[in-house]
């Protein structure tokens, strides 16, 4: 059973489910590696799967840090990605959370127009 707290990030695309781990502002440069690439950190080599890639980059404290994980939606749906994340999240440091909105844009518009 997939974890209820896992959702692809709101900036995901039609083809790519995104999971941001760290604030992009912490990074000075970026590069992308497939999870099966020989250059991924050793602690992640045993969990590499087709259709998963890492957005990596340089921070002031780490020359090769992972900023985000990308899931190819042609291979991974959200539930499958949630199961993979649940099994492997202990190998990552996740410090980023999307800001919570009080209302969606549609709900906000309804409040504005119904109050008149």
Low-pLDDT stretches: none
Radius of gyration: 17 Å
Strand tally:
4
- Supply the number of structural domains: 1
Strand order of the largest sheet: 1-4-3-2
Estimated share of beta-strand residues: 15-25%
Main sheet?
4 strands, antiparallel
Helical content stands at 10-25%
Calculate the mean pLDDT score and round it.
Answer: 87
Net shape: globular
Report the end-to-end length measured between terminal Cα atoms: 46 Å
Structural features:
116 residues, 4-stranded antiparallel sheet
Verbal overview:
This protein has one domain (16-114). The protein is α+β, with helices and mostly antiparallel strands and 116 residues long. It has helices spanning 78-88, 105-114; strands at 16-20, 29-34, 52-58, 65-72. It starts with 15 loop residues before the first strand and ends with a helix. A 4-stranded antiparallel β-sheet has the order 1-4-3-2, with no helix packed on it. The model has no long low-confidence stretch (mean pLDDT 87).
């Amino acid at each position: 059973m997939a974890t209820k707290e896992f959702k692809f990030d709101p900036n995901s695309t039609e083809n790519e489910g995104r999971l941001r781990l760290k604030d992009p502002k912490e990074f000075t440069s970026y590069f992308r590696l497939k999870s099966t690439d020989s250059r991924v950190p050793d602690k992640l080599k045993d969990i590499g799967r087709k259709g998963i890639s890492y957005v990596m980059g340089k921070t002031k404290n780490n020359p090769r840090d992972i900023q985000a994980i990308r899931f190819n939606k042609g291979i991974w749906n959200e539930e499958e990605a949630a199961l993979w994340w649940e099994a492997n999240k202990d190998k990552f440091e996740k410090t980023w959370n999307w800001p919570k909105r009080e209302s969606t844009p549609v709900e906000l518009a309804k409040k504005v127009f119904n109050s008149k």
